Amino acid sequence: SVFQATTSAPVNIACIKYWGKRDNTLILPTNSSLSITLSQDHLRSTTTARADPTFTETTLWLNGKVEDIKSGGRLERCLAQLKKMRRERIEAKDPNTPKLSEWNLHVASFNNFPTAAGLASSASGFAALTSSIAALYGLSSFDPSKPSVSSPSELSLVARLGSGSACRSLFGGFVAWEVGSSPTGEDSLAVQVAPQEHWPTMHALICVVNDAKKGTSSTSGMQRTVETSALLQHRIKNVVPARMQAIEKAIKDKDFDSFARITMADSNQFHAVALDTAPPIFYLNDVSRSIIAVVEELNRVSYEKTGHLVAAYTFDAGPNAVVYTESRNVKQIIEIIVRYFPQVESSPFPDPFNLFSGSQ
Ligand code: DP6
Questions:
Q1: ∠ CA 242-244-250, rounded to 5°
Q2: Which residues form the Mvd1 C-terminal domain (predicted)?
Q3: Which of 5, 176, 179, 343 could in theory staple to 135 by disulfide, Cβ–Cβ 3.0 to 4.6 A?
């Protein structure tokens, strides 16, 4: 028989940003974070994992190209943890079950979006890798009649070993990654704050400003920030804990105005912290800043007229914007972004204007 499983995981976009590690090996963060996972039919990674006693080595293909599996690296730690769970929870309990944990793996992962697009491909990638191997090993049952032997939060601990933000893609909807306090990391896991159906009118518009690969990687950038930024220490202690509480309440209440204010403020503080790093890190470009100005102006006009905001921008470690808005405003926001940037066919936007409507 063939031992193989295929699963998908979507990209998630943080509203409260993860930036800084207290442990670089276990990938333990300096603050909690919160994100929205895009729906399965938008930006996602799909991974197939196969175990076979005849495989002479473990191989990973990313979009068809063989990836180097560094000894002692993140990928190896993820695989070791999944094998340990398979041994302890499945093989040790049933001597007749095949010892998949002793066999090599072939893992093939594909993104349905360009990897170079500067969009969070490591988050969906490590989440899909973790869930596919967990399914292969019988750790996560997708058959509701069968009991599963690991929870999504437990699997988030494994995905976290691959890339911090990946732990949040194990859940759909609104997801918190709790900072935790244990030095071994068992309480630094993802939990679902609310499912997607709780607030189905929430949309994420992914605006690709520049699809070139970013200058400073998240991993090295945040390490430099931890080493040099005093503003980060203020953010960790005095800002994020209150913001986490406030945004969770905004989500529970479906209070878009509060959600939007917190999301924009946190994106801006994250980029301020990047600038406070020595040497400074610049992720936003002129187009990013123009998008901020347009959304701020839209919100100002809307607030004067209706007392409510219409959109919230957020930017990760690159110039691309994600604009959160509710269903009734999606058409207007897309039209306005296109109208305010008539240079859309020429530079600096790629041609064609690449705006995914990532329905939540
Ligand atoms: C700005 O998860 O890519 O997107 O843990 O080193 O793999 P590593 O970093 P990564 O960092 C993501 C940073 C961010 C904010 C966020 O997603 O919360």
A1: 105
A2: 204-360
A3: 5
Nearest atom, ligand 1, residue 217 CA? 3
Token digits of residue 359: 């329905």
Q: Evaluate if residue 351 carries a pLDDT over 70.
A: no
- Measure 102 CA to ligand 1 centroid, in angstroms: 32
From atom 7 of ligand 1, which residue's Cα is the shortest distance away? 163
158 alpha carbon – ligand 1 mean position (Å): 15
Burial class (CB in 10 A: 0-12, 13-18, 19+), 360: buried
Q: Which atom of ligand 1 is nearest to the CA of 122?
A: 3
* Ligand 1 pocket, residues with Cβ under 6 angstroms: 14, 17-19, 27, 33, 120, 122, 163-165, 218-219, 316-317
- State in Å: Cα 318 to ligand 1 middle: 11
Ligand 1: residue whose CA is nearest its atom 5: 164
In the numeric block, the tokens 């701020």 are attached to 296
Is 189 in contact with 160 (CB distance < 8 Å)?
yes
Average pLDDT over residues 104-115: 89
What is the predicted pLDDT for the residue at 121?
A: 72
User: Contact at 8 Å (CB) between 165 and 130?
Assistant: no
What ipTM did this prediction achieve?
Answer: 0.99
Counting Cβ atoms within 10 Å, is residue 103 exposed (0-12), middle (13-18) or buried (19+)?
middle
Q: What is the mean pLDDT of the chain?
A: 90
d(C-alpha 16, C-alpha 335), whole Å: 27
